[in-house]
Design a protein that fits this description.
By secondary structure, the chain is α+β, with helices and mostly antiparallel strands. 19% of the residues lie in helices and 38% in strands. It has two domains: 11-69, 2-Layer Sandwich (glyoxalase-related enzyme like fold), CATH 3.30.1900; 81-149, Signal recognition particle alu RNA binding heterodimer, srp9/1 (2-Layer Sandwich).
Length: 150
Amino acid sequence: MLPKIEFITPILNVSDVPASIAWFEKIGWTRTFTWNFAGMIEDMADADDNGVADFAGVGSGAVQIFLCLNSQGSRGGSMPLQIQNNNSNETGGTWISVWASSTDDLAKLYQAAIDNKMQIILELTDQPWGTREFRLMHPDGHTLRMNAVL
């Protein structure tokens, strides 16, 4: 029998690592490390004497996402008009489902997104498959499906 996988860490191709860290921090994530060509950046700063971070991690609870400057995957383009109007799936970026522990916690994340003027592409909605969700668009075109089980 093959071993089971313990966890998975998606990697998002981003245009600005420190700006992406700041974007995730708006919804309560924290930086887990920052890196540039010279190695780890002390105190997880945005930059050091060797330059700005070009790779980093952000985490929430037991999950983590890596952020990679202009590499390791694709980014979405500008958001097509049909996404704004009818919630099309054609963003071009990576989609990630993020799970909150409760609908109350999801509501807090939704309010944080509103308070921080983040781009919400689906309002908080009860889905027929038994979840409540909203969708956030990362500045580089990635979609985060923020979910909780009803």
